[in-house]
Amino acid sequence: MLIAGFPAGSFATNCYVVAPGPGEECIIIDPGQDAEPGVTELLAEYRLRPVAVLATHGHVDHIWSVAPVCAARGIPAYIHPADRDLLSDPAKGFPLQVGQQLFRGLTFTEPDDVLALADGMTLQLAGVELVVDHAPGHTPGSVTFRAPESVLFSGDLLFAGSIGRTDLPGGDYPAILDSLSRVCLVLPDDTRVLPGHGPQTTIGAERATNPFLAGLSPGPGPSPRSGSGPTAPAAGPRPRHRHEGTGPEVSGGFQGGRPPGLAGRPGL
Residue 221 — pLDDT band, cuts 50, 70, 90? Predict the structure, then answer.
């Protein structure tokens, strides 16, 4: 499996492109602020043809470029229904004053084709299989994507040494702890975690050292290898940081550009 990515925009959100290999169809995960040039460069470098955009959640640093990327390629976007309204009104994800400051003069719209993600759904897109796990807490509609190759796209649920913030509208700290227990801690230690911000890590490293996981036990959750929900139909017919094969690496953590009052853990 080919996984390539780069940190997009002032929020340094990790945008990923996933495909069976060069010259194949692909999916795009979390195209954030100003992600279109980086996406275009990766598609050209690896001769990839995108079939869908997937969003781990609806915060603007992860969905900023969803609509333009989908429109340019004529492809659908997948998002959990609980976060869908953030596609067209991302200010709902912030306190009123911060939202007004951040989005003054900006207009966001949904892509023409928006499809719903559901807990346990198995996505079979572009020759790639991903299992969707609903993981609320950071936002009500946060999800992760698990690949059979022991890779977890964790969004803003789990980072190297940290977890997603829960102090914005829709955040829920007990819920995110439950999601970490159900979705992350049930996975094998060698599972590679590709987060929404910062460097890659593994479940084993986070289990051993992440202070937010201290005292948590694996909860009743999904099988590490397969989904139990419906199968989604298949879609129709180098920036500085890239990752392929067995060694993906996203360098750097969160970098500047966030509005006042949003300091803290990585991401929004």
Answer: low
